[in-house]
Amino acid sequence: MHDDVCRQACLLIQKIMSSYISGEPEKIRDVMEYISPDILVIGTGKHEFYQNLNALRAGLKKDQQEAEGINFIIENEWYEAKLITDDVCLVYGEFKACETNIEGKRMIIHMDTRITASLHCEPDGRMVVDSLHHSVPYLYQREGEYYPKTFADQAEEAMKRSAVLERDIQLDPMTGILNRKFMEKYVNRMLEHKTAGTLFLIDLDDFKKVNDIQGHQAGDKVLKQIAKVLQELQTGSAAAGRMGGDEFMLFCPDLNKSDAEKTADQLIRQTGLALEEMELQPPQSCSVGLVSVDDADMTFEEAYGRADEALYKAKAQGKGRYCWYDFR
Q1: CB-facing half-sphere around the CA of 7: CA atoms within 13 A
Q2: What is d(CA 141, CA 148) in angstroms, rounded to the nearest whole number?
Q3: DSSP code of 277?
Q4: Which portions of the chain are predicted below pLDDT 70?
C-alpha cells in the first residue's frame, strides 16, 4: 500500500512537469484536476510564488505567452518519494529542460531543475498536489521572467555581433576580400600545417594611369573588379586578399603546375575582360608572379618575396602575363 502511494505520487509529478514543459494548453488543463485549490508553488523565477490555484493559473498563462515559439524537452529526469504518513508523501527529483528549436542559434537554453512536492491521497485513491517547489532563481533570470530569456537574447545578439565584427576586421573595406594582415595569417597557417600549394601575386599594369587620367573613383572600381575575379576563382580552401594598393594575392592549396598555370591564364583573361567592359583608356591588364609552396620550412615572407620576384620578371617581359619564381 505504501509503495503504491509513492509510485503514484512520482508518476503524477512526472506527468505534471512533462505537461508544463511541453507548453501544450490541453496537457496543462488535464493535470489541473490533481492540483489542490490551496496549492503553494515556488518556481524558478523570483516572482513565481503562488499561494493558490488561481494565482498559479494566471502565472502559467503569462509563462506560456512568454515562451511562445520556444520548445523544450525533458532529459535525465528522476523522481523518488518518501512517505510522511499513510496518505501523505514527499516527492523529490530533478530533470533538465533543453531547448529544441535551436537552428541558427548560438545561445541554447538548458535549465537544470530540482523538484520537491508534497502530495496526499484522497479517500477515492486520487493523488492531489499540495505544494511544489522547483529549483532556485537563476542568476541571469530577470524579474518577471520565467527563464533567463533576456540574458539568452542578449548573449545571442552579442555573439552575432562578435561574428560580424570578426569578419569585418579580417576584410579589406574596399574590396571585401581578406586584408593583408589576415591573408598573411591564412598563408602562415597553411605553411604551419605543411600544406603545399601555389601562391599567386597579382599586380595591375600601369594602374597609376587609371587614377591620373580617369580619377580615383575609376581606380577604386577597377580594384573591386579585380577582387570580384579573384572571388570567382577562389574555390575550396583557397583564399584571396588585397595586399595594398593594386597588389593582390591568391593562395590555392594542392595545386599542381599545370592547374596553377591554367588558373593564372584564367586570372589574366578574366581580369582583362572585366576591365575591358569598363572601357578604360589606356586598356588595362594584370601581371602574375607564381611560386610553388612545397617547402615545409618556407615562411610567408620568403614565399611573398619569391612571388614578388616572379611578378617583377613578368612585368619585365611585357606585362599581361605570368612567370614562375622557380618550379621544381
Answers
A1: 4
A2: 4
A3: T
A4: 1, 102, 105-110, 136-143, 146-148, 150-152, 154-168, 211-213, 280-283, 295-296, 327-328
Locus of grid cell 494548453: 25
Distance of CA 183 to the CA centre of its chain: 22
Place of cell 531543475: 113
Q: Is the pTM of this model over 0.70?
A: no
Q: Which tens digit of pLDDT belongs to each residue from 14-32?
A: 999 888 888 888 898 999 9
The CA-based diameter of the chain, rounded to the nearest angstrom, is 104
For residue 23, what is its C-alpha cell?
Answer: 507548453
Q: Residue count of the chain, please give it.
A: 328
Joined grid coordinates for residue 25: 494548453
In whole angstroms, give the CA distance from residue 202 to residue 32. Answer: 73
Q: Give tens-digit pLDDT for 51-109.
A: 999 999 988 888 878 777 778 888 889 999 999 998 899 999 988 887 777 677 666 66
Sheet with 197-204: strands ordered across: 239-244, 247-253, 197-204, 286-293, 322-324
Could you give the CA distance from residue 312 to residue 273 in angstroms, rounded to a whole number?
23
